[in-house]
Prior knowledge:
Order of helices and strands: HHHHHHHHHHHHHHHH
Radius of gyration: 20 Å
Structural class: mainly alpha
Bound molecules: zinc ion
Strand content: under 5%
Shape: globular
Number of strands: 0
Number of helices: 16
Amino acid sequence: MSDELLIAALARALEPEPLRRASHHSTQIDWFYVFAVVGVHLLALLAFLPWFFSWTGLLLVPLGMYLFGTVGTCVGFHRLLTHRSFSCPRWLERTFVLLGTCCMMESPPYWTAVHRQHHQFTDEERDPHSPLKSFFWSHFGWYMIRVDPQWRAELLQRYAKDVMRDPLYAFLERNHNWLGLLVISWVAFFGAGWGIALALGAPMTDALQFGASILVWGVFVRTVEVFQATMCVNSITHLWGYRNYNTKDNSKNNFCIAILTTGEGWHNNHHADPRSARHGHFWWELDIAWLTIRALGRIGLAWDVSIPSPQLAAVKTALEGH
Ligand SMILES: [Zn+2]
Ligand SMILES: [Zn+2]
Protein backbone atom coordinates (compact mmCIF):
# COMPACT_ATOMS: atom_id res chain seq x y z
CA MET A 1 0.00 0.00 0.00
CA SER A 2 1.38 3.43 -0.89
CA ASP A 3 1.98 6.05 1.77
CA GLU A 4 -0.97 8.12 0.52
CA LEU A 5 -3.36 5.15 0.63
CA LEU A 6 -2.12 4.20 4.09
CA ILE A 7 -2.65 7.74 5.38
CA ALA A 8 -6.12 7.89 3.78
CA ALA A 9 -7.08 4.54 5.36
CA LEU A 10 -5.81 5.66 8.74
CA ALA A 11 -7.64 8.96 8.40
CA ARG A 12 -10.90 7.13 7.63
CA ALA A 13 -10.45 4.92 10.69
CA LEU A 14 -9.66 7.90 12.87
CA GLU A 15 -12.37 10.25 11.69
CA PRO A 16 -15.86 8.84 11.97
CA GLU A 17 -18.15 11.31 10.20
CA PRO A 18 -20.82 11.86 12.88
CA LEU A 19 -18.33 12.63 15.64
CA ARG A 20 -16.33 14.96 13.45
CA ARG A 21 -19.40 17.02 12.73
CA ALA A 22 -20.66 16.95 16.28
CA SER A 23 -17.41 17.85 17.99
CA HIS A 24 -15.97 20.27 15.44
CA HIS A 25 -12.75 18.33 15.25
CA SER A 26 -10.60 19.11 12.24
CA THR A 27 -10.16 16.47 9.58
CA GLN A 28 -6.42 16.22 10.09
CA ILE A 29 -4.39 13.78 12.08
CA ASP A 30 -2.25 15.50 14.68
CA TRP A 31 1.08 13.96 13.76
CA PHE A 32 2.73 15.43 16.83
CA TYR A 33 0.47 13.38 19.08
CA VAL A 34 0.83 10.31 16.88
CA PHE A 35 4.63 10.47 17.10
CA ALA A 36 4.53 11.30 20.82
CA VAL A 37 2.23 8.40 21.72
CA VAL A 38 3.88 5.87 19.39
CA GLY A 39 7.30 7.18 20.44
CA VAL A 40 6.78 6.69 24.16
CA HIS A 41 5.48 3.16 23.53
CA LEU A 42 8.60 2.35 21.48
CA LEU A 43 10.86 3.87 24.15
CA ALA A 44 9.15 1.69 26.78
CA LEU A 45 10.13 -1.37 24.71
CA LEU A 46 13.77 -0.57 25.57
CA ALA A 47 12.92 -2.23 28.90
CA PHE A 48 13.38 -5.56 27.10
CA LEU A 49 17.09 -4.78 26.62
CA PRO A 50 19.15 -5.95 29.64
CA TRP A 51 21.40 -2.86 29.37
CA PHE A 52 18.51 -0.69 30.57
CA PHE A 53 17.66 -2.85 33.57
CA SER A 54 18.17 -1.92 37.20
CA TRP A 55 16.32 -3.10 40.30
CA THR A 56 15.76 0.53 41.29
CA GLY A 57 14.16 1.21 37.91
CA LEU A 58 11.91 -1.83 38.32
CA LEU A 59 10.87 -0.69 41.80
CA LEU A 60 10.01 2.74 40.42
CA VAL A 61 7.31 1.21 38.16
CA PRO A 62 4.78 0.31 40.90
CA LEU A 63 5.74 3.40 42.90
CA GLY A 64 5.24 5.61 39.84
CA MET A 65 1.99 3.86 38.93
CA TYR A 66 0.64 4.75 42.35
CA LEU A 67 2.06 8.27 42.54
CA PHE A 68 1.38 9.43 38.97
CA GLY A 69 -1.50 7.09 38.06
CA THR A 70 -3.54 6.70 41.24
CA VAL A 71 -2.70 9.98 42.98
CA GLY A 72 -2.08 12.17 39.91
CA THR A 73 -4.65 10.92 37.42
CA CYS A 74 -7.39 9.11 39.40
CA VAL A 75 -7.43 11.28 42.51
CA GLY A 76 -6.08 14.59 41.11
CA PHE A 77 -7.38 14.92 37.55
CA HIS A 78 -10.51 12.83 37.84
CA ARG A 79 -12.08 12.78 41.28
CA LEU A 80 -10.77 16.14 42.50
CA LEU A 81 -10.49 18.48 39.51
CA THR A 82 -13.20 17.10 37.25
CA HIS A 83 -15.86 15.95 39.72
CA ARG A 84 -14.96 17.93 42.85
CA SER A 85 -15.61 14.79 44.87
CA PHE A 86 -13.74 16.23 47.84
CA SER A 87 -11.87 19.32 48.96
CA CYS A 88 -8.27 19.60 50.12
CA PRO A 89 -5.64 22.30 50.70
CA ARG A 90 -4.75 24.19 47.51
CA TRP A 91 -1.08 23.15 47.70
CA LEU A 92 -2.10 19.50 47.86
CA GLU A 93 -4.54 19.83 44.95
CA ARG A 94 -1.84 21.46 42.83
CA THR A 95 0.65 18.74 43.77
CA PHE A 96 -1.80 16.04 42.67
CA VAL A 97 -2.58 17.90 39.46
CA LEU A 98 1.12 18.40 38.60
CA LEU A 99 1.67 14.66 39.08
CA GLY A 100 -1.26 14.00 36.73
CA THR A 101 0.16 16.42 34.18
CA CYS A 102 3.31 14.26 33.99
CA CYS A 103 1.23 11.37 32.58
CA MET A 104 1.18 12.71 29.00
CA MET A 105 -2.58 13.04 28.85
CA GLU A 106 -3.03 16.72 28.04
CA SER A 107 -3.30 19.82 30.24
CA PRO A 108 -5.43 19.67 33.41
CA PRO A 109 -8.16 22.04 32.08
CA TYR A 110 -8.47 20.22 28.75
CA TRP A 111 -8.52 16.77 30.40
CA THR A 112 -11.25 18.04 32.71
CA ALA A 113 -13.27 19.60 29.89
CA VAL A 114 -13.17 16.47 27.72
CA HIS A 115 -14.17 14.27 30.63
CA ARG A 116 -17.04 16.51 31.69
CA GLN A 117 -18.31 16.48 28.10
CA HIS A 118 -18.07 12.67 28.19
CA HIS A 119 -20.31 12.63 31.26
CA GLN A 120 -22.83 14.99 29.70
CA PHE A 121 -23.15 13.07 26.44
CA THR A 122 -22.08 9.56 27.43
CA ASP A 123 -22.35 7.16 24.48
CA GLU A 124 -24.19 9.75 22.45
CA GLU A 125 -23.20 11.62 19.32
CA ARG A 126 -21.22 14.27 21.19
CA ASP A 127 -19.34 11.90 23.48
CA PRO A 128 -15.67 12.68 22.72
CA HIS A 129 -14.58 9.04 22.90
CA SER A 130 -17.46 6.60 22.83
CA PRO A 131 -16.62 3.07 21.55
CA LEU A 132 -19.92 3.20 19.64
CA LYS A 133 -17.81 4.89 16.90
CA SER A 134 -15.20 2.14 17.05
CA PHE A 135 -12.96 0.54 19.63
CA PHE A 136 -9.89 2.12 18.04
CA TRP A 137 -11.50 5.54 18.15
CA SER A 138 -12.34 5.31 21.87
CA HIS A 139 -8.93 3.94 22.84
CA PHE A 140 -6.50 5.88 20.66
CA GLY A 141 -8.07 7.65 17.71
CA TRP A 142 -9.87 10.54 19.42
CA TYR A 143 -6.59 11.56 21.01
CA MET A 144 -4.74 11.76 17.71
CA ILE A 145 -6.98 14.11 15.76
CA ARG A 146 -5.91 17.72 15.44
CA VAL A 147 -8.17 19.81 17.64
CA ASP A 148 -9.32 23.09 16.18
CA PRO A 149 -8.00 25.84 18.53
CA GLN A 150 -11.32 27.68 18.40
CA TRP A 151 -13.20 24.53 19.38
CA ARG A 152 -10.69 23.85 22.15
CA ALA A 153 -11.22 27.38 23.53
CA GLU A 154 -15.01 26.92 23.41
CA LEU A 155 -14.77 23.56 25.15
CA LEU A 156 -12.63 25.04 27.93
CA GLN A 157 -14.97 27.99 28.30
CA ARG A 158 -17.98 25.73 28.57
CA TYR A 159 -16.66 22.87 30.69
CA ALA A 160 -13.56 24.03 32.55
CA LYS A 161 -14.11 27.67 33.43
CA ASP A 162 -13.54 26.94 37.13
CA VAL A 163 -10.29 25.10 36.45
CA MET A 164 -8.99 27.87 34.18
CA ARG A 165 -9.45 30.34 37.05
CA ASP A 166 -6.39 28.85 38.74
CA PRO A 167 -3.36 30.66 37.25
CA LEU A 168 -1.20 27.52 37.42
CA TYR A 169 -3.67 25.38 35.47
CA ALA A 170 -4.29 28.21 32.98
CA PHE A 171 -0.51 28.47 32.49
CA LEU A 172 -0.21 24.73 31.82
CA GLU A 173 -2.97 25.01 29.20
CA ARG A 174 -1.53 28.13 27.52
CA ASN A 175 0.74 27.34 24.54
CA HIS A 176 0.76 23.67 25.63
CA ASN A 177 3.09 24.53 28.50
CA TRP A 178 2.14 21.23 30.12
CA LEU A 179 4.44 19.57 27.60
CA GLY A 180 7.36 21.54 29.09
CA LEU A 181 6.58 20.16 32.53
CA LEU A 182 6.41 16.66 31.07
CA VAL A 183 9.87 16.97 29.51
CA ILE A 184 11.31 18.53 32.68
CA SER A 185 10.01 15.55 34.70
CA TRP A 186 11.66 13.13 32.26
CA VAL A 187 14.99 14.97 32.46
CA ALA A 188 14.69 15.10 36.26
CA PHE A 189 14.28 11.32 36.46
CA PHE A 190 17.33 10.73 34.27
CA GLY A 191 19.35 13.44 36.02
CA ALA A 192 18.51 12.11 39.49
CA GLY A 193 19.60 8.59 38.56
CA TRP A 194 22.79 9.77 36.87
CA GLY A 195 23.66 12.25 39.63
CA ILE A 196 23.04 9.85 42.52
CA ALA A 197 25.16 7.15 40.85
CA LEU A 198 27.99 9.64 40.31
CA ALA A 199 27.72 10.89 43.89
CA LEU A 200 28.05 7.31 45.11
CA GLY A 201 31.32 7.01 43.19
CA ALA A 202 30.17 5.12 40.07
CA PRO A 203 32.21 5.62 36.86
CA MET A 204 30.61 7.89 34.23
CA THR A 205 29.44 5.05 31.93
CA ASP A 206 27.83 3.19 34.85
CA ALA A 207 26.18 6.41 36.02
CA LEU A 208 24.77 7.03 32.52
CA GLN A 209 23.50 3.45 32.37
CA PHE A 210 21.79 3.82 35.75
CA GLY A 211 20.22 7.14 34.71
CA ALA A 212 18.96 5.50 31.50
CA SER A 213 17.44 2.61 33.46
CA ILE A 214 15.59 5.07 35.67
CA LEU A 215 14.34 6.89 32.57
CA VAL A 216 13.18 3.76 30.74
CA TRP A 217 11.57 1.98 33.70
CA GLY A 218 10.66 4.86 35.98
CA VAL A 219 9.28 7.07 33.20
CA PHE A 220 8.52 5.34 29.88
CA VAL A 221 7.20 2.00 31.21
CA ARG A 222 5.16 3.76 33.87
CA THR A 223 3.82 6.36 31.40
CA VAL A 224 2.64 3.65 28.99
CA GLU A 225 0.98 1.70 31.80
CA VAL A 226 -0.91 4.73 33.14
CA PHE A 227 -1.79 5.93 29.61
CA GLN A 228 -3.09 2.53 28.51
CA ALA A 229 -4.99 1.93 31.75
CA THR A 230 -6.74 5.30 31.44
CA MET A 231 -7.62 4.73 27.79
CA CYS A 232 -9.04 1.31 28.74
CA VAL A 233 -11.58 3.16 30.88
CA ASN A 234 -12.69 5.10 27.78
CA SER A 235 -12.90 1.99 25.62
CA ILE A 236 -13.28 -1.30 27.54
CA THR A 237 -15.47 -0.14 30.43
CA HIS A 238 -18.04 1.11 27.94
CA LEU A 239 -18.09 -2.31 26.26
CA TRP A 240 -17.48 -5.22 28.61
CA GLY A 241 -18.30 -5.92 32.23
CA TYR A 242 -21.29 -6.04 34.57
CA ARG A 243 -23.70 -3.36 35.65
CA ASN A 244 -24.89 -2.62 39.17
CA TYR A 245 -27.04 0.30 38.08
CA ASN A 246 -29.36 0.84 35.15
CA THR A 247 -27.71 4.01 33.82
CA LYS A 248 -28.76 5.42 30.44
CA ASP A 249 -25.30 4.78 28.96
CA ASN A 250 -23.29 1.63 28.27
CA SER A 251 -20.92 1.97 31.22
CA LYS A 252 -19.76 -1.27 32.83
CA ASN A 253 -17.83 -2.39 35.88
CA ASN A 254 -14.80 -4.29 34.66
CA PHE A 255 -12.75 -6.17 37.24
CA CYS A 256 -9.48 -6.25 35.23
CA ILE A 257 -9.60 -2.55 34.39
CA ALA A 258 -10.53 -1.70 37.97
CA ILE A 259 -7.40 -3.48 39.22
CA LEU A 260 -5.27 -1.88 36.48
CA THR A 261 -6.59 1.62 37.28
CA THR A 262 -6.78 1.20 41.07
CA GLY A 263 -10.54 1.79 41.09
CA GLU A 264 -11.53 3.69 37.95
CA GLY A 265 -12.77 0.51 36.26
CA TRP A 266 -15.92 0.44 38.44
CA HIS A 267 -17.22 2.67 35.73
CA ASN A 268 -20.92 1.83 35.86
CA ASN A 269 -20.88 2.78 39.54
CA HIS A 270 -19.11 6.01 38.59
CA HIS A 271 -21.61 6.95 35.88
CA ALA A 272 -24.46 6.20 38.29
CA ASP A 273 -23.04 8.72 40.76
CA PRO A 274 -20.22 10.77 39.17
CA ARG A 275 -19.76 13.03 42.19
CA SER A 276 -18.97 10.21 44.60
CA ALA A 277 -15.32 9.96 45.62
CA ARG A 278 -15.88 6.25 46.08
CA HIS A 279 -16.18 4.23 42.84
CA GLY A 280 -16.10 0.74 44.33
CA HIS A 281 -19.52 0.42 45.94
CA PHE A 282 -19.36 -3.16 47.24
CA TRP A 283 -16.71 -4.34 49.71
CA TRP A 284 -15.12 -6.54 47.04
CA GLU A 285 -14.91 -3.72 44.49
CA LEU A 286 -11.36 -2.70 45.47
CA ASP A 287 -10.84 1.03 44.99
CA ILE A 288 -7.35 2.12 46.03
CA ALA A 289 -7.95 5.70 44.86
CA TRP A 290 -10.90 5.86 47.28
CA LEU A 291 -8.82 4.35 50.09
CA THR A 292 -6.25 7.09 49.41
CA ILE A 293 -8.91 9.83 49.68
CA ARG A 294 -10.31 8.22 52.85
CA ALA A 295 -6.82 8.13 54.38
CA LEU A 296 -6.33 11.80 53.48
CA GLY A 297 -9.62 12.54 55.23
CA ARG A 298 -8.50 10.73 58.39
CA ILE A 299 -5.40 12.91 58.68
CA GLY A 300 -7.35 16.10 58.01
CA LEU A 301 -6.14 16.68 54.43
CA ALA A 302 -9.49 15.97 52.72
CA TRP A 303 -12.98 17.15 53.64
CA ASP A 304 -16.45 17.47 52.10
CA VAL A 305 -15.90 13.99 50.70
CA SER A 306 -18.86 12.85 48.56
CA ILE A 307 -20.02 9.30 49.04
CA PRO A 308 -22.60 7.32 47.01
CA SER A 309 -26.00 9.02 47.15
CA PRO A 310 -28.79 7.63 49.39
CA GLN A 311 -30.78 6.57 46.30
CA LEU A 312 -27.87 4.46 45.09
CA ALA A 313 -27.36 3.09 48.57
CA ALA A 314 -30.98 1.86 48.45
CA VAL A 315 -30.38 0.15 45.09
CA LYS A 316 -27.18 -1.35 46.46
CA THR A 317 -29.01 -2.70 49.52
CA ALA A 318 -31.62 -4.27 47.24
CA LEU A 319 -28.85 -5.87 45.15
CA GLU A 320 -27.17 -7.25 48.27
CA GLY A 321 -30.46 -8.82 49.31
CA HIS A 322 -30.50 -11.03 46.18
ZN1 LIG B 1 -17.47 6.77 30.91
ZN1 LIG C 1 -15.77 10.82 35.60
